[in-house]
Amino acid sequence: MKFSDYIDKIKFTLIIMPEGSRSVIKNKNYRFFRALRLIGLFTFILFSVFYLLFSYTPLKSTLEFGDSMDVRSGEIVSDMNDRLEVLILQLDSLREKNRRLQNILLNNDRKPVQEKGDKDGKNKANNIGAVIIEFFNSIFTGPKPSFFSPVTGFISQKFLPEKGHFGIDLVISENTPVLASANGYVVFSDYTTNDGNMIILAHSAGYITVYKHCSAVLKKERDLVEQGEVIALSGNSGKHTTGPHLHFEIWKDGVPLDPSNVLSK
């Protein structure tokens, strides 16, 4: 007898028993190959149903959501790390700018550094460094400069130091040339978050002038400027502004002065 004939003669009984005491017990007899065919048919139908579900429904993307979330989480973490590094660099830059501004306003960081080895600040006349230092000293230790208004405009906000407003606001159209109020030396020229593009000039006798909210600064740090020279263009930059204007300040030895009382009439 062949093995296939032997297998085909194998019979087994399938008993279906519903719950309940009064249920009727039914049994079915199946040959092996017939049962195998039924199992194969059931498997094919089940496979077809899953194939259709994966192909024409969002089930596949739903099942793959976990893997995609892991990938996206990794990308998000990497992106956040990159942004954090940028923020740290920006924070360091802001701290350095604030330190420099504090030093400038407190009259601690305006004079050029003397040459090494020159304890008395005196050098020979034929020394180029001595000539430069002498020139700068003449700027910073000279007589009181005569200031004039850097722009022509009306004052929208007066000098109110008790409210933290250490200068005057001059309303002018955007991109109006801003002039140096007096001969001086550029000690700061950069963008700040609150005051936008800002330039600060150091003058003789311990004076400095500050120009804020410019649309552009035209001079860089260490530039020498003459009175009436264009140093910036007025604008509306920075967070602490409500419209195009120039915020102008005058300081003397770390103390803010009312520009209206200092400017030449």
**CATH architecture assignment name of the largest domain:** Distorted Sandwich
Shape: rod-shaped
Annotated CATH homologous superfamily of the largest domain:
Glucose Permease (Domain IIA)
Estimated structural class: alpha+beta
User: What is the helical fraction, as a range of percent?
Assistant: 25-40%
Radius of gyration: 42 Å
The string of secondary-structure elements, in order, is: HEEHHHHEEEEEEEEEEH
CATH class of the largest domain: Mainly Beta
pLDDT averaged over residues: 77
Highlighted features:
Glucose Permease (Domain IIA); 265 residues; 3 domains; rod-shaped; single chain; alpha+beta; ten-stranded antiparallel sheet
Can you describe this structure?
The structure is a single chain. The protein is α+β, with helices and mostly antiparallel strands and 265 residues long. It folds into three domains: 3-61, no CATH class; 64-105; 154-262, Distorted Sandwich (Glucose Permease (Domain IIA)). It is built from six helices and twelve strands. The strands form two sheets. Strands 3, 4, 5, 6, 7, 8, 9, 10, 11 and 12 form a ten-stranded antiparallel β-sheet that branches. A two-stranded antiparallel ribbon has the order 1-2. A hairpin with a 3-residue loop joins β6 and β7. The protein is rod-shaped. Mean pLDDT is 77; it is low at 110-126.
